[in-house]
Amino acid sequence: MPVHDHNTSRRSFLKKGSIASVGLLVAGPAAWSGSLLPGKPDSKFYGVQVGVITYSYRSMPADINQLLQYVVDSGISAIELMGDQAEAYAGKPADKSQVAGWRASVSMDKFREIKKMFNKAGVSIYAFKPDALGMKNTDAEIEYAMKAAKALGAKSVTVELPKDPEHSQRLGALAAKHKVYVGYHAHTQATDTAWDVALSQSPYNSMNLDCGHYIAGGGNNTDTSLLALIEARHDRITSMHLKDRKTKDNGGKNMPWGEGDTPIPAILNLLKAKKYDIPVSIELEYDIPEGSDAVKEVQKCLDFAKRALGAS
């Protein structure tokens, strides 16, 4: 499928899945697979790392070990890790008044254990999103988050794009100190220029681009402008979120992949064609059908991505 063929319908795309499978048989599995180690997941196809944000499993309560099992069962080999399970494993106090002090002094040993545990199962961590990067958090908490990210093997921490540019300036300075990127996530307020101030403040300020929220934002946000934004800012995007949302005019609802207006196949094929080193996180936000669960739905999203890339 051409990279910029935005008008290709999802119905047409799904019909092409069987044709892509024939091409895969000709090319052989080594053409797309990163490791193919027995018993380990592999969700990197033609150089495109398809991952998941562990928020997707919020409907399935878990400790860090169960969470890892969900990821492996989904067939995913790289993740954006939310903070809850990791911090619990590291001994985060239940008393909220003690959390800041704990973060300021805790050893990174448990986070290194998590990295080792996940890597052994075939899963890497490219981003870490603890609730420790806000305006009300201390510098010590923010630096803790960045040190923990490094211990986990992550390239970036992720946080919501601040309304106050002084905070992105603060985060960018601390990120430069620790050489960890801060990926700023936006919801439907996203525009082509929403990140400009933050990106100008520090080379360690970056984008965690949510493609579904961008499409649902309306205004000048279109398929074409989204792909142009990725091309223009590819060297400042440390990770992306993928979900299939309707446009604002169509109600903005989160839909099963292939039923919304987000140009997921075009996004993935742009990354493939341009060889952009940007991991994409499946973010499960649509309603889980009765009889299914988050693991099964993440599997469906992954299968959609594989077909889009011609790897299935």
Explain this structure to me?
The protein is α/β, with parallel strands linked by helices. It has one domain: TIM Barrel. It is built from 13 helices and eleven strands. The protein has helices spanning 10-15, 17-27, 64-74, 83-89, 99-105, 109-120, 139-152, 165-178, 196-201, 211-216, 223-233, 264-274, 294-308; strands spanning 44-45, 48-53, 78-82, 124-129, 156-160, 181-185, 205-210, 237-242, 244-245, 254-255, 280-282. The strands form two sheets. The protein has an eight-stranded parallel beta barrel with strand order 2-3-4-5-6-7-8-11, surrounded by six helices. β2 (48-53), α3 (64-74) and β3 form a beta-alpha-beta unit. α6 packs parallel to α7 and α7 (139-152) packs across α8 (165-178). The longest helix has 15 residues, at 294-308. The radius of gyration is 19 Å and the shape is globular. The model is unreliable at 1-37 (pLDDT under 50).
